[in-house]
Fold these 4 entries.
Entry 1:
Amino acid sequence: MKTTIINAMVGCLLAAWLVAPHPVTGAEPATSTTPKKPSGKPDLSVYPPEIKLGSSRDFQSFVAVVRREDGITVDPSDQVAWTVADESKAKIEGFTLFPVADGETKLIAEFGGARVEVPVTVSDSGNTPAISFEKDVMPVLTRSGCNTGSCHGAARGKDGFRLSLFGFDPAGDYHRITREIGVRRINLAIPEESLFIKKATGAVPHTGGKLFDPDSDYYATLLEWLQDGAPNDPADAKPPAVESVAIYPEQAVIEGEGNRQRFVAVATYADGTTRDVTRLAAFSSNNSGSAEIDDVGVVTAGRRGESFVMARFDTHTVGSQVLTLPADLEYTAPDEVQGNYVDELVGEKLKQLRIVPSGLCSDEEFLRRATIDITGLLPTEEQYQKFVNDPAKDKRAALVDQLLEQKEFSEIWAMKFAQLLMIKSTNQVSYKSAFLYSNWLTDKFARNEPLDEMVQEMLTSTGGTFTEPATNFYEIERDTLKTAENVAQVFMGIRTQCAQCHNHPFDRWTMDDYYGFAAFFSQIGRKNAEDYREKIVYNRFSGEVKHLVTNQNVPPKFLGDEAPETKGKDRREVLAKWLTSKDNPYFAPSIANRVWAHFMGVGVVEPVDDIRISNPPSNPELFETLGEKLVEYDFDFRALVRDICNSRAYQRSTEANETNAHDNRNYARATVRRIGAESLLDCISQVTESPDKFRGLPLGARAVQIADGSTSNYFLTSFGRSARDTVCECEATTEPSLSQALHLLNGNSVHNKIVAGKTIDRWVKEEKLAPAEVIDRIYVRCLSRTPTQEEKQGLLDSLPEEGDSVAALQDIFWAVLNSREFIFNH
Amino acid sequence: MRGVRLTLSVAVCGAAVSISTPAFAEQSTDEVEKVTYEDDVKPIFRQHCLSCHNQGDAAGGLALDSFTAMMEGGGSGEVVYDDGDVQGSRLWQLVNHDDTPVMPPNQDKIAAEQLEVIRSWLELGALENSGSKVKVEKKKNALAMASSSGGKPEGEAAMPESVPQQVPVVTERASAVTAIGASPWAPLVAVAGQQQIVLYHAESSELLGVLPFPEGIPHSLRFSRDGAYLIAGGGEHAVKGIVAVYDVKTGERVATVGDEYDVVFGGDVNDTMNRVALGGPQKMLRIFDATDGELLFDIKKHTDWIYSVAYSPDGVLVASADRSGGLHVWEAETGRLYLDLTGHKGAINSLAWRDDSNVLASAGDDGSVKLWDMHEGKLVKSVNAHNGGAMSVRFDHDGRFVTAGKDKRARLWDPSGNKVRDFEPMGEAVLQVAITHDASRVVYGDWTGAVLMTSVEDPKDKTPLAANPPPIPVRIEEIKTTLASIRSDLSPLKEELDRQNGELAKVRKPLTDTESQIATLRDQAGAAEKKADEQAESAKRLAAELPELTRASRDSHDQVIAARLAAGDGADAAESVAAAETALAEQLTKLAEQRRRRVSLEASVAESRKLAATKLAEAEELKKKLPSLKDAVAKAESQVAEAKAAHDRLARQLSDTEAKIEKLVAEIR
């Protein structure tokens, strides 16, 4: 199976490239050995799949992609023989098709025996529509970056001129360009003298510099519009809205630094027309070191890696995945992928990336890793002995099953959700409310109630904050807009905050979407209950949300979905039903992704609560499948956890190999993670056998069980416990800090607990264990392994020859607890 | 400098007087019925205001439920003055809906009679209760215009005489109007265009000349105080800004001041033409020595683009306004800040001074036009002039002012800020406005570049003025068409004149005939009379001779007798007797002839007299016909005169037009 990447090339392709040396890949075919497979036609694709030309102005650029057998794609556009079936209908210039006369024809691409036909429809070729402000002028401004936040799109504008950020307010922009200051920006007497275009071409000093040439199509568009008298689009004939945008090809796997792939962006309007927006979309790459995209959609490969190139046009952002591989990569494909569906999907991606996954971790590592991840505790010595000595083949799966049954599992998730729901006592929310709310949540998880039902109950809750603790959801955050933002972020992983003031610049969300979604929460009523600490939340069947720009009421509308009929209904019920529906494309995947991230250290989408087009999943198929599985399991995420923990992807070693050392998003090796604040404290208390006391909880309760988020201690705070101030996942951090190190070294958490727990005392004085045995037990307890011979010898050497060894052994205990191996999950 | 000191000291003295001399209180009249806070005003406040403006809530920091608190004012300063100033009272401005936010909010004005109570209470010194005394003599209305010293030039005010007619840039359409100016003393209007300033006659709307402005677009046009110079501020956006001064008569550019890196939005010169102040997007107010271009003051105070700069007519102060509502008044000579006028809630687009330099007007995007008193340094009147934004304001010599705004209209206001007239709306926001020297016409232009000159008396009488005049050849062609039309208009006039002359001749003939007839008759009568007189004379002479003849005949008779007696019958004797008798006979015959002649003469005298009388009577008869004939002639004559005047007028126009063509032709050569 071992072969080089070059060997994988298809024979006929090779032959074609020998005739015309391939300028794009730069791969040297001469170095290749005999083609493995006999000839076949190259896998040629042409984009866009359909071309519609709707006016004399219209044109459409196209691109060809050949996918080699090994998955590498190349751009053969300039070797393809391009023809038009009926040249009286359309003509080709470069890689662009222009209309000639109305009718239908085909764009034909022929390459190495392969032939692809793209249907072409030409209509209205005799019609040259006037330049429209919204359809033509605004895209040029957005494309040129005029309305970005650092330029005129800033809230107060720039250098005295303001545009709406990314053009969310075309009417306002029209006013400011044409009317705000008489003749300053546009000069209709001499359109060429308009500052509006003189600044853009750098003809006069411009802080933003030169944005395009006077001979560019952008300039021509703006100038023609000015020559026409800078008209606004008539209110009764607004141009059609952009329905969707596509970027082609959907995926590219580029081999060799410096090689290129052209991309084409096509917008589809509400009236069914399409438009080549390759020169109007704003392109960007989320990893430009790996794949740089220029302003006309040409991607140039950089260093090895994975990136996502995006095109933003109107309010739409779309992206394609680009994988970049070195040209002369030696790659040994692993054996057939083993394991469950997770491994299949992860393995597929790794193959594409030519990454070899690390091997499986040891039983000891697995035991510690799974126990911490699932229960937030360390395996006990008994568990350790039992597991290590268990000869059963499926003992790992058995361990997972057993751990999932423990109540600690549900407590971890109750805590995680308590963090997201910001459960804590504040001036508004009494301690009693917070406590009841937390208990309600913990109870739900303990009874393994499906998440969809729990969320539904919470979102539609009505009643007193004491009697119906779920109503606290609406008490902790009382602002309508923020409530809507929180629901989107917590339950769908979508951050809509941007769209409060302007259309989301890197996602599809518009202000209409934002206020439409917020409208679901506009009718929540609150009143005082008898107990002054209690509030009653109810639906008052009235109240609206106003749009920031239009100042009009916005009817409720699901995010990215329809506007439902809510008359006479509790809007929250309508929303909750939609949100938790099995068909909801956001709910299940985002929850599944949170679960995945908890176990794998990094989400398929990361951060887990920032799912957007411009932050795509590293493995889209995996992302979707996890969501589908969660739905399949009726939102019982124990089952999902079981799948994850039983996967080889989870059970990999943290040891990197040459191919996966640079990668941390594709699960080719296990991620080393610091244990979270609460669990770390619980672990320390567990191994030192010295219980903690927290407010409202009995002695010995664990930090994970803390109900009220305002309860904390120095240890928890400095180790990055969630302050529960926002719904952001990032509230809980595992960032290292000096205070953490100093606290472990000198603070009371470690040393005092060792002394207070009297474990060493007991072992030495009561159980009369030899120092070597004590050291073994410390290691097993803390690190789930026995010390190596060297470690053991070194430690034994450090013990005093005579006298009481307790203090020395306590020091060893202390040293182990201060080791990185202890505070990390690996 | 002297002027500033004077102004300031007057202001200070005024304030001192109002505070420290109770003597005034003694003088004030106590007879007027008192309107007091406690008795009259507070009940109104209670009804409309106190639910927000009480000392507990004090919305906007203002409480009206206590006299002291009320006099202290609110967050934006004092709202009531005890000096009788109604218009300056913020409270009044808001309750009278002169300014925003109108009070009570989102409601109609409070009842007119209640408003009247508040007004008279303020007017009478805002007394607290019946025991209070009026503090000062009723102040003169700040909007009362002090007599203006004018600035009117001696002799004829400047009009273009030899201003070039060449159009530097020809454009198909005009851009949004950037500036309009009107000469303060002559029928002359200046309209800004592309690299040019177009001068029009304010009465005939004739294009009098084009001042080239190669730097770009003029954004500010102001005439010097005597109207002899035109000051244009402008330039190329984002590149260069200057202020240029033109001689109105010759069109020559006499000075170019400033070198900004962006356009100049506002520029002006002082009264003596030795200072130029300008400002623009660079936010700096710069004052130059106009004679040598030296930068005297570089004032950094504005936080946003300066939109307007204006010197007071007396040259003592200079005001500058910006895009964020900043309005500052400076001592012109020292560059020191004199007043900081806050009140506009958005960009201030235009500034104008009243002739007496006591009042400054500002027009802003908040829709208001505000009048500021320079002595007190406070807002005296705020007019909600234009919904959506007031763009321009200018005063006439009487303190009335014209405004233009985004509601597509221009308006005329009286000196107190009451609307006098709405002019008909234009197609887009009206950006600039000016009023002619005699306040007979208003010139305004909108975003589309259309400029209208409209009669103040009859707003329907509108003449368009082009900010983008066509080039000379086109204008010559146009004028030639005019010429042709004048010519074609002239020929029927000529025909009419001829026809009327014919008519006149026709009606004149019977008159002259009759008159000559009368004359003839008179002559005849005269001749007859004369003849009669002569005959009478002859008769008289004959009569006079008769006695002599009689005596002679008697003598002869005697001699006959004597001869008879003497001679008896002798022959000789007989002969002598016969001789004597012959002599006697001769004498008697002669006498008889004479007698007969006399009789016949007398008869012919009578005849002649009768003839004369007949002729005269005939003449009298004819004379009766004369008046009607004369009337007809007079009528015909006046018609001729009329036709002639019409003809001559057009003919003069013709020759003028021909002269103009010649001038234009000469210019392109």
Entry 2:
Amino acid sequence: MLFTTVTFVVFYLLVAATYFALTPRFRAQNVVLLVASYVFYGFWDWRFCGILALSTSINFICGLIIDSSQDEKKRKAAAAFAIIVSLSILGFFKYYNFFADQLAALLQVFGLGGTHDTLKIVLPVGMSFYTFKEISYIIDVYKGKFKAERNPLSFALYVSFFAQLVAGPIERGSQLLPQINAPRKVSPLDIEMGVFLILYGYFLKLVIGDNVSPVANQVFNNYEGYRGLDMLLGMFAYALQIYGDFAGYSSIARGIARILGFHLPINFKLPYFSRNPSDFWQRWHVTLSQWLRDYLYISLGGNRKGTIRTNVNLLLTMLLGGFWHGAAWNFIAWGGYHGVILVGHHWYSKPEVKKPTLPPKLASGLSIVLMFLFTLVGWVLFRAHSMDQIFGMLSRIGFSRSHETNGFIKTVFACAIPLFLIEWYQQSKLDLVPQLQWKPVYRLGAYVGILLAIALLGARQATEFIYFQF
Amino acid sequence: MSTEAPKKERPTVPDESSPVLSKRSVWLTVGGVILFAFLANLALIPIMAKCTPNSGYKIVHKKWQLLSETPDVDIVIVGDSSGDQGVDPDVLKQELGLSALNLCTVGDMMVLNDAAMVEEYLRTHTAPKMVIDLHVYDVWERDVAGSALAQIPFSVGQLKQVTPWIKHDFDWTADIVTSRYLPLYSESKSFKQLVFNTLTRKKARTDEADKIGPNGFLRQENSDPDLVNSDLAKHTETLQNLKATISDTNKQALQRLIQLSNEKGFSFYLVSAPIYQGLADLATFQKHQKELSAKLEEILKPLKNGGYLFPEPRSFPMEVMQNVDHLTVTGAEDFTKQLVEEIRKHESGI
């Protein structure tokens, strides 16, 4: 059930009506949300619900064991068991065929391999997201950051809440469980924020992401048929597509939760205004970035063990972050690439490294452009189907034009300019919702404008959200 | 990934402000958006019905209007746009002495619309002597689209009745309902065109639907060699991957037409659309058509009166083609006469 379908709109209206009818009985509301979440998930494939329920049950029980036991060995064993089971389920569905392929290739190098069969495994949507939620919960309980959840329904809702089930944001137990276990108060601000986030999310997805996607698809699917400038436009188009798509999804997810009284974390903070790689990861897929930092990078030692170890930890974290996105070498390459530029940036940030003296505004503008170019190269690694394609596309970049270049320029800039203007205003105010400071009549005008933009300019055949595959 | 401790300098990463908003102001903004969306939809329903720039839908609406307004005729012609401007009822009258009404619409309406039209005709008129159903080869594999189905002026319940083979799930109903009652959502493309035409004061091109006469025939006076050539290139490409399949919707609708013919006693003729010679000469087309004809003949086996005409489609030169499968009025006259000849071979009684 995609957020962009009429089915979802009707589903959400029914759920919201039932939910508010039960106010202030928040436990009953939780039951409604839990049932709705499983129905929502079952729309993809009802069998996915079984895996979700199994994974939820194991983590719930292990959380209780960790919390109730004084025996450190037992606590550790329960935590390890929960994490291993969660990762094994994810590993089987997401990575089995990848590793089988690599093993077969390796054996063939040594003349040992024959043919092997890959299993027809369908990755249940959202599995990568809810697995990370469960792992963070187990680790936090183990570290004593908060008490294990005693109510199975509350915990099940934490894992499966439909707003964030299939593509995040990756919410922590310490943030969401207290909201689940208390009556929600929906303020006027929540309602307006919710409506705005939903509208703006649809705008990002349908007007920006889906309209620019044909350019990205054409160039990436047939890069050999295009010329230098087309490569750049294709990369630019993909940067807009993936941002519109994923930031749009996150915005809708946060909006539908906000109207129900839940505050989900911000996942995107104008990432293309980043000035350096470190800044980028404070703005792009923020909840994943924070998860990797808290549960992987810091666990590896973070920056406490010297420069070399810090850099190794960074690279390793980013490689695994790339691998989280999918079982393919290009995702690993993408993660590794971001690891390398992060390491490079850390080196460059040292006071002893001499830097050119430029006027602050010029330096800021140049760093944003430079970081955007670095990001574009990263998107080639992310989107390409093979290493050949990555090198093929990057080596073709230039200014030669094909007969389709003009059309590509029009499409890409028609999407990029309005987005840039909106985000430039948000960035200049350092506020993602600057319109809330306006008079109501201006806010109304802005929302009607977004609605009309969706109606007039939105792609009608909305594509599935890119991040569902992860 | 951020690994740096926050520095004590002006932040550059934006956040969300949380001002206190009064209930009144939120009522105005959120209520205003909802009210705007509701009123815009309400206003657009009649506007889009009258001024839609979608000429295909206009043709559909006009043909359904003709069906309800025209008295009984001897021959009812249904099918896609190739028949719309390919079968001239006046020529049929002249050659066979039988009155005819051309109710052909557009390809996206598929055989489903033909079946619905014949059902409605039989409900409101005396059964005709003959039904001619004409389609281009690439219509057969298409499947039903809710937006097209919504153009048939039946209630949702009636649509369900005439499409018993379709899974009438929530998505199906939602598709019909949104197509009809949420034009801001479902007809955004047409709405966008309408706004663009109005703002730029662009004169809408002569509408195809306006060329339809009282007998339903669409007169296309001029040939268009450039269009024929570009269209041929598209068809050549399409044929590379096109399989000779018949969608369930088309198959079931065709079976329904056969059933009606057998029950009501009218002759039913399925006719391959006239095409450009250049297309007929393509080996890929010939292979595709051969496989398709075999499948259609298999479905037509239970038919008592009538048959399948032109399993090898009649082809025409560039001078009488508007595009690769649409004739000019001169070509239509020739094609209709060939059709009459073929029908005479089957129906010695007429």
Entry 3:
Amino acid sequence: MAIFRPEDEEQVREILAGLERPVELVVALGPEEGPVPGLPPDFDFGAETTRVVEELCALSGSLSTRVEQEPEGIGRFPAVLVRPEGREVGVRYDGLPWGYELGSLVGAVVEAGKREPTLRPESLAALAGLDRDLAIDVFVTPT
Amino acid sequence: MLLAYRLALASPRIRAAAVEASEFRALADEMDVAAVPTIVVNGAPRWAGSVPERVFLERVLAATSE
């Protein structure tokens, strides 16, 4: 099954055409959590994530993907690491990006594809003084 | 979600992850996720719901003073 409806696919293709630099999507595979209500107990989230990311990457010459088994520092699988020009910058999607949340992955790609930060100048000034590491996890659902 | 990603891209000190709540149910329960988006900073749940950039940044940075 295609991940986008034909009309959506065209729109995503156009959005991705605006990428200003290459973005690599690393699919991190490892032990999965277990069954999710409404899905078969043997549903392979890793395989499905790999497929979704491959289909997304087929829509733009600026996107590439590869699979890594249990990369260091990643504790939830599958995950998609979004890397501008192949650099690890701490942008990640944990789980299978599908439904509404496919938009979050596309959003991450679009943001990573920009050469300049898109935050307000005041925000950038506040971040410049940051002297501790921060890990932000945003819980989302695809429906 | 995009705000969190923008912060991570703007600062080497920040990393941001979307976490699919139905797939990581045990963790979502541990973080008292009852609505989405729920924002967790450095392992502690902070708030639920979308907020403007200024508020998002204020709340995230508040976690650094704890």
Entry 4:
Amino acid sequence: MPKADILVDKCTGCRLCEGVCSARLVGNFDSARSAVYVESLLPENIVIRPFMCVHCEEHPCVDSCPVAAIEKSEELDVYVVNKSLCTGCGACVQACPYRGIRLDPVSQLAIKCDFCKGQPRCVDVCPFKVIQIIG
Amino acid sequence: MVYGYVGKILRADLTSGRISTEPTNMNWAKMFLGGKGLGAKYLFEESKPKTDAFAPENILIFMTGPLTGTIAPCTPKHVVITKSPLTGTFLDSYAGGYFGAELKFAGFDAIILKGRAKQPVYLYVKDGQAQIKSAENLWGKDTHETEKLVKEELGDKEVKVASIGPAGENLVKYSCITNDFYRQSGRGGAGAVMGSKNLKALAVRGTQGVSVPNIDEFVELSKEIVKKDVVGNPDNEWVIVDGSPAIVRMSQEAGMLPTKNFQSGTFEDVDKIDAKAIKEVLVRRRSCYSCPMACGNITQIKEGPFAGTLLEGPDYETLALSGSNCLISDLGAIAKFNLLCDKLGIDTITAGNAIAFAMECYEKGIITKEDTGGLELSFGNTDAYIEMPRLIAFRKAIGNILAEGVRVASQRIGHGSQSFAVHAKGLEYPAYDPRGSFGMALAFATSDRGACHLRAWPAASDAFGKLNPFTTEGKAQLVIDDQNKYAAKWSLIVCDFYAIGYGNIARLFSAATGWNVSEDDMKLIGERIWNLVRLYNLREGLTRKDDTVPERISKDPMLDGKAKGRTVTLEDFGKMLDEYYQLRGWDKDGRPTKEKMAQLNLTMS
């Protein structure tokens, strides 16, 4: 199963990843509704880094979901959110140690990366090669 | 369906507390785009002539452009538009960061403020709604504290904040507005206009997004432009490698690095403040929204009395005007000064000029320790220099006079000091001495908001290019071409550091809005915007005599460097200005002719 590796020190905070991700997920440029999101904490401590599903082996999000809405897609070889089952309870958000899954503020349903069904757009658009796919 | 724009404007009258929303005027958007142009149109139509900048009636506009919030490269900026308290002219002051994109996501193309709150307030905007909230507990706080406190109070660390510091509250005429901690609407005193309205901050947040007609095509177009014209364009390489500090060396070699209040064009200690020096203290690079170049340098001073100082910057203008122009070579001191100015809310370009001006007054005996509050305010004295931002922000001792900018300060101080007050229309010079690039003399003199390097930059073609820098010939057309193109660029809004041409301006605008706009259309729109702003300034009472060069440049020969011995004489300058007016289709007094206004569809009813 492929995984994401995030080279946090290389991120400059341009947030182009959010733009292309939201373009695919919701059809417009809407950073708040992207599956990948950049946090930039300033001014005394400099933290600039993206958060997204890294597609970990342990998948606590899957285990935490009370309605089994996060399913393995055999076709894509990653876990995806089944929107027709998700109730937006947020248990997965609490469970994920990577802060890789969050609730869409409009639909109130869980959103997570599915590697764009094979060709991750954030990887392609990132000018600094912060997001890498392994495996 | 509106594309590119989000189609709504938020209005807040701080006197009555009334908040309203209305559709963005799309007829105006077609004629004036967004940003500078659309903001200028609203300011022109909604202001009475000769409104005082600090009057409640002076409107204050936070405007975005049709590309803001999209992934079009280098389009993070919003612009603050108002009448300037420093110059009495039109003012457009841009800032990067994330605030502009978030304002669009919150559902508005612009916020238009007027009136004056009885008590300090801030405006909170979220997803199409707005409320005026008390800022009693924020008043007196610096911009960093304010931003942190607003985020805390709203319980949202992702809210984007633009705020003023004590300088804006104290109506320092060149107070800036800071957003995202390290980004400023720097020039011309928009922060003081906020202060005059008792408006401490704006906080914006939203989830509404920006739509374009065909999002997949738009993404592909943006990626193609990044590849071929931004990251792949050698003209932008210095931005990617060093950011603005690259210009320190370029200016030094061209003999136009402001040094000792523009007495000299080269700085002995240039190696202490150049891009290489910045690299040694670099922590990491930082981008604004949608920018693949990341020109921002987050730095931390490692040793000396200012060890530990951490900030984004200093940028070229600060290194030059707050560095070499004050004969300060300690990068730590410049960084600390920069941080103080950011937090107190002062423009470092004007502050550097004002302090260098005061240092020259002090060395000439025009002012003494009695005026400076005991400070030995000589060139290069770091101890005195580092005290100055506070004196200015709180209007203490000489700071109270310097808070007015060098034009008014020199009038009050007198004793011949006007001959070395370096400004155009009251806005202090940026860091390109025109004696090393004669075209810059015209660029500064005819710039709409006073001396600005971002309205035309002929130095790229003469001092840093192939043309002869020491002649006025051919420069008028160069300045006009830049001004028109930049007017369009500042209306989309595309960052100055991406050297975009009309072709991609037109392609991106058309792809974002779904309107079919050609390169030629864009050229006409750029010229129209420049002329509209000229009409505003004329209405405010400006005349040909305001389009001029200061005595330091016209009379004092440059002391050393490549431009040694040069002046831009008033005679040469006058000829260049005549040519400029003529090529613009303006009369001898610099007024657009009826024919020109008709050609640009600017004839006012």
